[in-house]
Amino acid sequence: MSATIIDGKAFAARVRSQVAEHVQRLKDEHGLTPGLAVVLVGEDPASEVYVRSKGKQTVEVGMHSYEHKLPADTTEADLLALIHKLNADPAVHGILVQLPLPGHLNSDLVINAIDPAKDVDGFHISNVGLLGTGQKSMVPCTPLGCLMMLRDHHGSLSGLNAVVVGRSNIVGKPMAQLLLGDSCTVTIAHSRTRDLAGVCRGADILVAAVGRPEMITGDMIKPGATVIDVGINRIERDGKKRLVGDVDFASAAQVAGAITPVPGGVGPMTIACLLANTLTAACRANGLAEPQGLTA
Question: Is the pTM for the entire model greater than 0.90?
Answer without folding.
Answer: yes
